[in-house]
Each structure stands twice: as C-alpha cells, then as structure tokens.
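Q: Predict the bound structure with magnesium ion.
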Amino acid sequence: MAQRSQTLRTLLSADQISARVGELADQVADVYAGQEIALVPILLGSVIFVADLIRRLPLDMAIHMCGLSSYRGRATRPGELSWTLPPPDDLAGRHVLVVDDILDTGATLERVVRAIGGQQPASLRSCVLLARRGARVEPDFFGFRIGDGFVVGYGLDYGDRFRNLPYIAVIEP
Ligand code: 5GP
Ligand code: MG
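A: Predicted complex:
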C-alpha cells in the first residue's frame, strides 16, 4: 500500500524527548511553584506529550481538554480551524496552561488563547513540545525549535497514522 511506504527520518529520539520533557517540567514547576494550574491540552496531537509532562510536574492541577483541528485527512497544509471540542468555560481566575504538540503558524494557539483569554483567567501561558522557527507567536515554554518538514510520532500524525511512534521523525518528501 502506498501509505505504508513513507520514508521517515528520525529527528528526535525517545531519549532526547524524555530528557527535554524533564527539563521543561522543571521550568514549568518553577514558574507555578505553590499554585494550582488548569491544564488545557489541545487534542489530539498533544496527548502523549501531556501524559509525559504531567507525570513530571509536582503541582496541583486540573486537566481540561479542548480540540481544535486544522488539518484534514492527509493534507499537510493548514486548512480552516474548527473546534472538535470547545474549551472549558470555567477558567476565570485560574492559572491556565495551554499545551500543544507543535506550534506551526501559531493560528491554533492564537485561537485557543483568544477563546480562553476572554474568560479572564488569573494567568494564561502556553507550552508546546515543538516550535517552528519563524512562527508568528512565541510560546511561553517549548521543548525543541525545529525547521521546515512535516513531523510525525510522539502524538503527531500523518492521516491518523504514526501517533504511536516513540520518537519524532520527518516525513521525507
Ligand atoms: P498552527 O495552527 O500553529 O499552524 O498548527 C498547529 C497544529 O497543526 C498543531 O497542533 C498540529 O496538530 C498541526 N501541525 C502543524 N505542523 C505539523 C507537522 O509538522 N506535523 C503534524 N503531524 N502536525 C502538524
Ligand atoms: Mg494539533
């Protein structure tokens, strides 16, 4: 089958990811020391990252998912954004940390931050595993800065496949 013959080039190994997620958790824990946070992961790509991150965060937290989808099927160009799960509406006065897999153009994060910001949270920050160079918004926390190339693995998919890879790879064109 054609879809099984993608060539993948490893970009970040499982060990590299694990080490960096630990450092990121330490950074986040320092900023929120003594505070309770409301984590808002953006489905679906962030699930593996957030599962690893929260187990290394010694903070009181509540987790509220939201879903915003910009890619349809096998397309690898950003399309129209649509909520697959609207953000929670009880974030007023809380310390909110939005978590996503990758910040590409920044449109997804901007949309979520706008939706949540209107609720007057006590603070609102973002944490992404991967941040594309040249994105129009900057995350408050990020794991790795990456260049061009469509990446998969560790939660990130290509047409619903490859989310279960324990490492991150670039799909060779
Ligand atoms: P943005 O709105 O910042 O352009 O894109 C963010 C979303 O697009 C991410 O949450 C992710 O779901 C998807 N995305 C962007 N770049 C990639 C990529 O290289 N690989 C995968 N699998 N998804 C991506
Ligand atoms: Mg996403």
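A: Residues 14-31 form the longest helix (18 residues).
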